[in-house]
Write a structure and sequence with these properties.
With 331 residues, the chain is mainly alpha-helical. The chain has two domains: 146 residues, 3-Layer(aba) Sandwich (Glutaredoxin), CATH 3.40.30; 155 residues, Glutathione S-transferase Yfyf (Class Pi), Chain A, domain 2 (Up-down Bundle), CATH 1.20.1050. 35% of the residues lie in helices and 5% in strands. Strands 2-1-3-4 form a four-stranded mixed β-sheet. The longest helix has 23 residues.
Length: 331
Amino acid sequence: MTDIDPESAETYVAENQPYERDTRYIESRITRDGADGYPIEPGRYRLVVSYACPWANRSIIVRRLLGLENVISMGVCGPTHDRRSWTFDLDPGGVDPVLGIPRLQDAYFKRVPGYEKGITVPAIVDVPTGAVVTNDFPQITIDFELEWTEFHRPGAPDLYPEALRAEIDEVNAVVYRDVNNGVYRCGFAGSQEAYDAAYDQLFARLDWLTERLRGRRYLVGDTITEADVRLFTTLARFDAVYHGHFKCNRQKLSEMPVLWAYARDLFQTPGFGDSTNFDHIKRHYYEVHRDLNPLGIVPKGPDLSNWAEPHGRESLGGKPFGDGTPPAPLG
């Protein structure tokens, strides 16, 4: 069980309303030219994440694939949070050892005193000032890929190749609307009508993805790209959380053969499975969403050992890292 006080838990469902995600982010960027006041500078910035969060999980994967660990440090929040803030309860004394703060909101308040929008992960913090630079999660990974190239490891994949960017952007847009955010629109729907519409849209898009991936190994091109990272973090949570907790239950991922094999292929690719923590994922959703799961009981299942089963996708061609190499095994 968790130590979250149910009385302090956030409410996610608005009765008789469809779920609408708040996308008002701090949009400053870290760039080569430092146009927003934040130039590329190794060691200056700290990526704050939780392994539980799919949006943060993207940045964990991309940072590892590109080999940015030595230039952008990473602080890890615990899998749960209260109504207002993620916390550093995994660290000794509950304090981030670099930022010296117990709650991520402290870094937000350094940037915007009394910040009233969501205290979200991922967030990049400027270590010298202790202030959040950005929590604009879609832009964070793109900037890792395009602005930090001088510091990519040898053999790093090109996750956002120029020739494929338009197609990647097109795929990402519909996957975000119908799948990444679609599962939340099912789970946090405030009416039967809103749920039914979100459910139909989600599974129509999963059927579309099935057909797209039936004869090709990756979503765009013949190597892993930003598009695969974005879809993977939702698929990784599907059977463990979304199928039951969010009522996305037409089928489990493991009952959709093409998508299940695709997801296992990525999971078994260095950088993906080793950046996935199913325990944190399950604890977060079931313990935090008290309006969906009032007692915070975390289910024991499903058995997740089947993620290691052979996927057979090599026969479709393509190489995950193209002419590059995988990241080194985690120590």
